[in-house]
Amino acid sequence: MVEAALLVIDDSGFNRLLLKRRLAELGYPEPDMAEDGQQGLHAIAAKKFDCVLLDLEMPVLGGIGVLEALRDRPDAPPVIVISAHTEMSGVIRCIELGAEDYLPKSFDPPLLRARLSAVLEKKRLRDLAADRLAALEAELESARNAQLSLVPRNAARLGQGRVTLSAYVEPARQVGGDLYDIVRIDGRTLLFAVADVAGKGASAGLTMARTVGLLRCAARIAMEAGTRPDPASLLRIANDDLAAENPDMTFVTAALGVIDTETGEGNMALAGHDAPYILSAAGVRVAEGLAINPALGVMDGLSYSATPFTLAPGESLILYTDGIPEAEDAGHTFYGRSRFEAALMAHRADAPAAVQAGVLSSLAGFTQGALPADDITLLVMRFG
Which fold has domain 152-383? Predict the structure, then answer.
């Protein structure tokens, strides 16, 4: 016997009995029965069916009405419309509304077997694809959680001395290539980084995880040697490793620095990354004079240099990835640097968390729910 849950919706008792017999002859189990479309919808709401055999013309609610009610239901069963040859215009409308096939009311056994078998096989394949998609989405969600666990969950707790922090990362897909990191070196020194892997998705996510591990390991080696990590040396070490066996030329842009949380003095190295902003009561400006080094992973053996910087009391360092200025609305217009700078200016006297919230609110208001084109990362570090 063929395992299938079937529902016959037909106002004719003769048609229901005939279909029941035909289905039994073909090895199908006894179907559920409904005498009109309203009863049929109640039956569909109460039980999962593999296929519905639906009469076109019925009192109370006809076949077209049933299909219109099922149209927006993702769990709606496949439907074969039962029709007379004189009702073909109605059959066409039913097909437009999502019916899989139609069956003449003669209920010819070979034709019934062929069309029912085809519909049930398509449903089996759709169910299999849906199960595999659900499993894949669960795996990607697990990978997303694992990736996000690589960055500090609460950047604010890592602030020390006169430095307060806030940071945010959001992959454009389940996993992405952006990262930020904050490491306490000692009682008054913080290591901070923001980086962006070229591309999106799983490949970028793996490179992101690799980059985090390289930078942290290199920093720990320096700490165990009793020296303060040098941003230029850390980038050189990471670059040599990322460039090895890299046939796809996947590269990483990064901004990496250390800061004395008591004086505001530090060193920073940029590897193909946009210079950060300096935000203060006086306004917002690009941090100038920072050495620009090559992106990581392009070629090994490159040298990197860092540049001293100093934050004055009340100033904030704004590090970000290009997913912010290059975010797009539904019309593919870029958010742009002018909107980004205006959002920063609106919160120039605020704490890091408020600056971050203001930028993200401005960004959300601009994109209006449009799918993100790139990962987004923002790190706000205030000295005061």
Answer: Phosphatase 2c; domain 1 (3.60.40)
